[in-house]
TrEMBL record:
The lineage of its organism: Bacteria, Pseudomonadati, Bacteroidota, Flavobacteriia, Flavobacteriales. Residues 266-293 form a coiled coil. Residues 267-358 form the Chorismate mutase domain. Keywords: Coiled coil, Transferase. The keyword Transferase applies. GO terms for biological process: chorismate metabolic process. This is chorismate mutase. It comes from Formosa sediminum.
């Protein structure tokens, strides 16, 4: 990872006047389906046509892909449309077949990234290749594991590297299929600014009607491109039907997205400002989510107090919290005055929640 500048060469070489777009069906289902979608995408912003050939599924008995047969369909896509082709690989055998069929871009999925053994096997099979290799973040929010996978590939003399941010699994139910944890992706960008990063709003959202908003946030945070699952008949797709969009919808999404362009010093200032504001928006949303979770715990405390006939205000506990938070705030450059005002407001909201419960 020392020669980071080299990592961006493949993206610069594309000379695009728009973000990189990788699109196509979650799964290759039939040759007709693959070719129909590809021809509908060939004159759009899509540079790489993607299709899942081998599908790692959560539970057995689900559709796990058509296998190597689908690689021939991808070859036809390249021959007929001129688009480059991309697919996921999960082991050395997949890599061998993908290279034999001249797949241009290979990515390692989230379930594979979690295993250094699998990543090393793939790295060994790809050693020295000039193909583009992208690494999806691991299922859990572990930055070291994500970067470790990239480093294993870099050590195998693979120059054309990048990462895909597809969100992280959580046991908590949220509006996302996989929570973005934007802060982790931002940290990766700050550590390796020349490592291309692609956003996968399809897997983050799990819902097609949320794809635009997540894509816009990604571009505001200076992501280099998008991977969006696209199907001419999403409702009847064989896998992940709810998160796929039609080619027409994809084209409209790309038209509606606000893309920041650098042109002069004023534009540079605005780009930097918009990027910082986008980061603040992400953090503000995290604060609201955390406060919501805090109030859920406060409700549970209120229920316990009601059962035991205990008063809402516990002065000793409250003073302990304030003292601790003032010290914590100082460690993060926050004034005592600010901490006191903020936690008094939070405490009052907790009291309001608990009083509602006690009055039931």
């Amino acid at each position: 990872m020392e020669n980071k500048k080299e990592l961006r060469t493949w993206l610069d070489d594309l000379k695009l006047n728009h973000p990189l777009v990788v699109a196509g069906p979650c799964s290759a289902e039939t040759e007709e389906q693959v070719l129909k979608i590809a021809h509908e995408l060939k004159d759009t912003d899509v540079s790489y046509f993607r299709a899942g050939i081998w599908k790692p599924r959560t539970r057995p008995g689900m559709f796990e892909g058509v296998g190597a047969l689908g690689l021939k369909w991808l070859q036809r896509v390249k021959a007929e449309t001129g688009m480059k082709i991309a697919t996921e690989v999960a082991n050395a055998a997949h890599v061998k077949l993908a290279l034999e069929h001249d797949v241009d871009l290979l990515w390692i999925g989230a379930r594979s990234t979690v295993s250094p053994f699998i990543v090393q096997e793939i790295a060994d099979a790809l050693e020295g290749t000039d193909k583009i290799v992208l690494v999806k973040n691991p299922v859990n929010p572990d930055l070291a594991l994500w970067l470790g996978a990239v480093e294993r590939l870099a050590s195998a003399n693979i120059k054309n590297l990048g990462v895909i941010h597809r969100g992280f699994s959580t046991y908590e139910k949220t509006k996302y299929r996989n929570t973005p944890e934007w802060q982790l992706a931002i940290e990766l960008q700050s550590k390796f600014p020349d490592l291309p990063i692609i956003n996968d709003p399809s897997h983050i959202t799990g819902k097609r009607d949320m794809i635009f908003d997540v894509s816009q946030t990604a571009l505001d945070l200076n992501f280099d491109g998008l991977m969006i699952e696209t199907h001419y008949d999403p409702e009847n797709a064989w896998s992940d039907a709810a998160q796929q969009v039609t080619p027409e919808t994809l084209v409209q999404i790309m038209k509606d997205l606000k893309i920041r362009k650098e042109s002069d010093s004023e534009a540079d200032y605005n780009d930097a400002l918009n990027n910082l504001r986008a980061k603040i928006d992400v953090i503000d949303n995290q604060i609201i989510e955390l406060l919501g979770k805090r109030m859920v715990v406060a409700d549970s405390i209120g229920t316990l107090k009601r059962q035991k006939n205990v008063s809402v205000l516990q002065s000793k506990r409250w003073n302990e919290i304030l003292g601790k938070m003032v010290l914590e705030g100082q460690d993060h450059g926050l004034s005592e005055e600010f901490i006191l005002k903020m936690f008094k407001a939070i405490h009052q909201e907790s009291i309001n929640h608990q009083e509602k419960i006690l009055k039931k």
